[in-house]
Design brief:
alpha/beta, 2 domains, 6-stranded mixed beta sheet, 9 helices, globular, zinc, Clx_II_MBL, metal ion binding
Length: 253
């Protein structure tokens, strides 16, 4: 299975999943149709299915135009706001698409309807988990979001993480405020800086890497708990409390 990034807006990635079953690809979170149409034409591909992680427009805005040309299923969360969905899925549901078996993981926090798509080795997590960070908590609660991240932590370490935005460099700048003495984080931040200077993509990441550098997955590490407590004055060690403190810290600069 090969995964190709399609750039959209200023920093979005729409993912095209090629499974070698035919000339079709699975398109994940198409916020815009035009760059997808261009990529399909350049690569002589069609669309087999569309996967949707949540309702935000920068993940759904291109679906209607794409499905006008390509008659394909649109698989996403149970949310009537996403009128283009033809197959709503939920936690633990498994289905086969393009010769690949997929599992649905509900990951609320960024939004209440957020889901992620997993097949061994590959995680498409929308805005729940970023490299070095996570999405803003627009609709969920700290407990929901931290539980979603705990679910993703249980996946195999070699899982490749395909998130939907090129936020890595900014996320690592913040991560180093939380863990300034983390040598893996420091080294990776230098690598990402070089990649971005060359306008190179920093994704996918891996879960093992994120577990070593991402404070939003490392909320039970002493260094992260200490930083959260020092920043807020006093923080309980429960995952949701540490998570909320770090999230507020990042949101408020």
């Amino acid at each position: 299975m090969r995964v190709h990034p399609i750039c959209a807006f200023d920093d979005n990635y729409i993912w095209a999943i090629e499974t070698n079953t035919n000339d079709g690809v699975i398109i994940v979170d198409p916020g815009e149709a035009t760059p997808v149409f261009e990529w399909l034409k350049e690569n002589n591909k069609t669309i087999t299915a569309v996967f949707v992680t949540h309702h935000h427009y920068d993940h759904t805005g291109g679906i209607a135009d794409l499905t006008k040309k390509y008659s394909c299923p649109v698989i996403g969360p149970h949310n009537p706001e996403i009128k283009t969905i033809t197959q709503a899925v939920q936690e633990g549901e498994r289905f086969s698409m393009a010769g690949v078996d997929w599992e649905v993981i509900e990951t609320p926090g960024h939004t209440l309807d957020h889901i992620s798509f997993y097949t061994p080795g590959f995680l498409f997590c929308g805005d729940t988990l970023f490299s070095g960070g996570c999405g803003r908590m627009f609709e969920g609660t700290p407990e929901q979001f931290s539980q979603s991240l705990l679910k993703l932590r249980q996946l195999p370490g070699d899982t490749r993480v395909f998130c939907a935005h090129e936020y890595t460099q900014a996320n690592l700048t913040f991560a180093q405020k939380v863990e300034p003495d983390n040598p893996i984080l420091k080294s990776y931040a230098e690598k990402v800086k070089m990649l971005r200077e060359q306008n190179e993509i920093t994704l996918p990441s891996t879960l093992n890497l994120e577990l070593a550098i991402n404070p939003f997955l490392r909320f039970d590490q002493k260094s992260v708990m200490k930083a959260a407590s020092e920043h807020a004055g006093s923080v309980k060690n429960a995952p949701e409390d540490v998570f909320y403190t770090i999230r507020q810290w990042k949101d408020n600069g």
